[in-house]
Amino acid sequence: MQNKAFLEQPFFTTGPGWWRRFWTRSNERVGYLFILPSLLHLIAFLLIPLLFSLYLSFTDWRGTNFYNAPFIGLSNYEFMLGDRRWWNAMGNSAYFTALSVPLGMIISLGIALVMNQKLRGVYFFRTLFFMPVISSWVAVSVIWITLLDPQAGMVNYFLKSIGLPTVNWLGDPASAMPSLVMITIWKGAGFNMVIWLAGLQAIPQELYEAAAIDGANARQSFFRLTLPLLTPTTFFMAITGVISSFQVFSSVYVITGGGPRGATDVAVHRIYLRAFESFDMGYASALAWVLFFVIFVFTLLQVWYMRRREEQALF
Amino acid sequence: MVKPKHWWDLPVNILGYVILIGATLMMVVPFIWMVTTSLKPSGSEFSYPPQLLPTSFDFSNYTDLFTLVPFGKYFLNTILVTFFTVSGQVIVCAMAAYGFSRLHFMGRDTIFLLYLATMMIPFQITLIPLFLIVFGLGWINTYQGLIIPGISSVFGIFLLRQSFQGIPQDYHDAARIDGATEWVIFTRIFLPLTGPALTTLAVFAFMGTWTDLLWPLLIARSQEMRTLELGLAYFNANTTAFRQTNWPMVMAAAVVVMLPVLIVYIFAQRYFVAGISLSGIKG
Fold first, then answer.
1. Which range marks the domain in which residue A152 is found?
2. Is the ipTM reported for this complex over the cut 0.95?
3. Measuring CA to CA, which residue among A122, A246, A138, A141 is closest to residue A183?
């Protein structure tokens, strides 16, 4: 307990203004001790690495010159401009994002709408829907590798049995990325559905009743009422979806290893290969910063939107 | 208010169930297939046509996992790493959250803003220097290398801060008048009252650590240090040669990896779903 007598000691009340303010305004200085472990952790494992990473991106740091890596200015960034594999990877990430985010959102919204109908046993279904969400990417990956096996896999067996042509899912450069997208949507559907459900349940029921009295049919009340009122949820999911899609790694690493012929080599996978297989850590850091700026644009968009909504809520 | 009844309510409900059951089957069938394959005789090729339900119950894959491959060691490693990461994260985050929500000291809100700002930094950008720092500390291939970088999370602090703020100031003041120190107030009043939030954080941390691949992939260099997730990935590391993989055994390994997560999920489902819809932030 910090009492008045303690604060009135000359040591704390003399000296420069900032020093006095520090001691008089911080009457619960023990708070510094409470945040100390997390602050040290943040500095050692986040802030220092962040600055270190920026420095690395201007050096030619590789496995062989660990302690005397030459400073090479913007050369890494210059090299990146002409690195076709990197642009292929960025293109693949964009392709993955463009497919998985809208499709994933639409499919999970459809399921959330059904679940929102207050059917019996909805919680049982929700539990099962969450199985892919909680499973690890590695476990999910090995399951899908076997399911999508072109000869013996169950998916192709099913297609064949209903008379459709089979697909070399993960082996064909054209279908490998859509297959990954399919697996990603399958894994994330339960997660997205819970967020949609939270958004749907926040819509006041009276609005639907009023719309029904005004003679709105189901389609009208969905497009004129549900969708506009879901805008915050939609925006949130789209942005976080884009951010996490640009960070995809585990699934690619385990399922395709970036193949076939670079068709699923996404940005983080390329950074991983550069940093931890070629040990080209300076260049890989430069790539990571470029990726960071792409992600950051979307993060800022989200912050801006949330700020705006808060301001609107005030008035 | 009671929903008005219509003649189409029944067909609409039936359609709803059809969609739900169809979608649920798509979610569950892959897992049934995993269990079925894991019960096939070890080393057997895929049977054609594929069988969804098991015809044989051969548990030798599960026993082989622990004799042919050091899966027991992987299991132990994963339990150790997860236990210390989760307990560290809960303690460190709870302390910080208490400081940020209940104590007044200079620069508090500025420091908290800095914390929040770091949530915008994707993990990939710090990955390389983090690896170099852990390397410099001599922690490659050690438990502390696997554990220490994960023992705090800004997301966790944010989550707990919200629930600490929900506790009335009267409790705090009453304890202070009785002469309790801040540490006593924190451990005896705040921690017991925020059990659900602490559980939510613990569940998130457990799921994240147990299923993490990237960090163990970089840190665990020898076979003895591998986690379950990494052990499973190495079964399948060489995708070009995957036809030679012993699939029944890989599936048995996948079942072993998944089972603890599934058990935790079944018991802590409430906290998990609450955490997601509350924050909407992926751990």
1. 83-314
2. no
3. A141
